[in-house]
Amino acid sequence: MAYRIDRAAVIGAGTMGGGIAALIASCGIPVTLLDIPGKELTPGDAAKGLTLASSAVRNRVVTTLWERQLKSKPAALFTPEAAKLVTLGNLEDDFERLRDADWIVEAIVEQLAPKQELMARVEGVRKPASIVTSNTSGIPIAQIGEGRIADFRSHFLGAHFFNPPRYLKLLELIPTADTDPELVAFLRDWAARTLGKGVVIANDRPNFIANRIGVFAMQTRMLYGIEHGYSVEEVDLLTGPLIGNPKTGTYRLSDLVGLDVAAHVTHNLYEAVPDDESRETFLLPQVIIDLVESQRLGNKTGGGFYRRTKGASGSSEFYPLNLQSGAYEAPRNPRFELAGQVRGIEDLGERLRAIFAHGAGDRAGDYVIDTTLPILAYAARRVPEIAASPLDVDNAMRWGFGAEAGPFEQWDLLGVRQMVARMRQQGIEVAPWVEEMLAKGIDSFYRREDGRLTDVYDPATGHYVSIERPATRIVLKELHGGARELGRNASASILDLGDGVLCLEFHSKANTLDTQIFELGRTALELLDRAEWAALVVGNQGPDFSTGVNVAIFLEGQAAGSFESVETAGRLLQDLLMDFRFARKPVVTAPFRRVLGGGVEFAMHGARICAAAEAYMGLVEFGVGIIPAGGGCKELLRRNVSPHVAAGGDPLPHLQRVFETIAYARVSDSAFGARDLGFLDRADPIVLNDEHLIGYAKQQALDLVAMGYSPPRRGDPSIYAAGRKGKAAMLTAIEQLRWGRFISDHDALIARKLAHVLCGGDLSAPQWVSEQYILDLEREAFLSLLGEPKTRERITHMLKTRKPLRN
Length: 807
Ligand code: NAI
Prior knowledge:
about 800 residues, 33 helices, 27 strands
């Protein structure tokens, strides 16, 4: 049976339902969102002539909740326009609308009876082959589908999203014994491609995968810390990035989730797993019970394990709870010698191995070792109960908790056999299948060939099984160090993506752009010129595409009293990007996450930009007192002003928008927003699943080659310059802002330089000019701004505080 999803419906418009509807609509799929009907009149209703039968009253619950979603931060929708795809309604008047839905998502209150009643109603209206899922976090899926006819049950499964649905990558699919396996395969693939989710298949066991292992890990870390006298701050330090977890560590994460929610989930888990040999780990520590009782629920109430306090400078500070005294105290920023020693080791495996090798007997080492071993062992004991494959467990922990490596991956990094020996020493129960695996001489859960992950151990058969991976899932890390690494320096690498496609990968700190990247970019272009290469992708798989040019470069030369080195770097960047743009073979750029300043300029010089949906793009140079000078002004003009003029339109409103985009340092909150800001064209594809971004970029590049790619012509007068008249209008607007004290004198100076560049300088009449003409103006304005003391103050401040200075 072939499944497809063209329309969806979500029932329950609360935190999860609203977020799921927003995500589905953001991906271009119309969705009906229903909640219970409003049954009361407010004092204002009568005056407006509203009665209990009015649709405004009937839809009040859903409308109020949806409006809250629209205002949520970070935004639930990729773009405000996506809201047009959401139709609101209530469960009495609009239930019939479910007839059209190919996918019906239940996200109502977490109680069995209402969910079962709802499913009985859904059964009465759903069309054949439509998919029904429940977002329950803890109720057995099979129970929710109990009593339904066979056709319903074969199309019913759990689809557990994480909060907030747009941003948390994990989606757990929980089929029952009755669910059609084809449907599961379809939804797995569809949700990965269309919604960009990281999908795992979980068994219908309490709290599924991520929350079962995640809660166990959180509890283990807290209970051990409490028992052995580690402070809140110490635990967070030892359970954060040091061991491959996000900065929130343990206690901060509880505050973020909400202690009431965390306590509820943990308590329910305790109740639901009477046979779990480690059930006592789910007993809440008294401190959580006390905090919840006193309504100190974490970030949402301003205090939990940390309390937000206004510091001396007026900025927020977080005071940790003293677990002994129960008082909030000034942060102590604890340090551990061992942590200090290993922190500099970039590779997680090496870092963990160093802790395990030297840590026993050390306070920090003991904590990490004594909490990690039980967590790894527990994960193994839950297979195959919660998931058939260790891979699903690892994926769930990486996608759901932002861990750098899941438990089995960590175990492999540490050495399976060695860790089992230590577990035995500590009296920790080792899963029989792990013992069997070792007895067979198999020493790792995963197998790699030439650095490429190929197989995972299957506990059911006792053999490795190959890991299915679509061609678009390229892992750059796997291409390092072997024949496919064609060049490398400290900041970048050139990799062979296969099929004649090269990749220029940045890996400098925060992926800031520096001369080493420019140099390797040049080498990549030289390679591209050779017959064996067809196209080049510029991208990476770090935390951000690029946070821009390393501004420290701008201060160089200042002491020597010349900007020669800066000018050289500026030229290198401009020339490189122009050579990308005019290369005979296509260059496709693949921006994602933060794409700032020079990062945007890099992206915009591709023949195509293949952008991740989560791309936060902005030319933010104004904040450090300069203007974009790597072709950012030029590209925005070319993309957003010139086409309108060529079509006979008035340039000024478009020019004004470009000016504002740069002067207000606007940053998009998605790739769709970046399209609205004019960084991306309609032809530039947006990819929902960031893990496939490089693969899709490669595909785009090959498509361009197949279509007979020919680059734009260098030197063509392709940019409309408005000249003096346009500039005069802009200068007037700038002066008004300055008089009104909306901007500082220095802002006004930068803005005037920007207007100068955007209008093509002092041309007496509008003209079409070449791209190089605007680039020369960019560079000139940029260098003159660098000579300004207030600009240098801005740069120094940014380097010190990471925040812009308004002077
Ligand atoms: P919520 O309380 O924000 O929203 C539930 C919505 O369901 C409300 O708008 C309510 O009006 C509606 N509702 C209540 N009773 C109903 C009924 N009998 N029929 C129809 N609608 C009814 O709850 P939330 O947090 O969105 O949770 C929804 C589901 O998602 C629950 O099953 C929860 O366990 C699960 N979940 C929650 C997560 C979270 O972080 N909040 C994460 C993952 C799953």
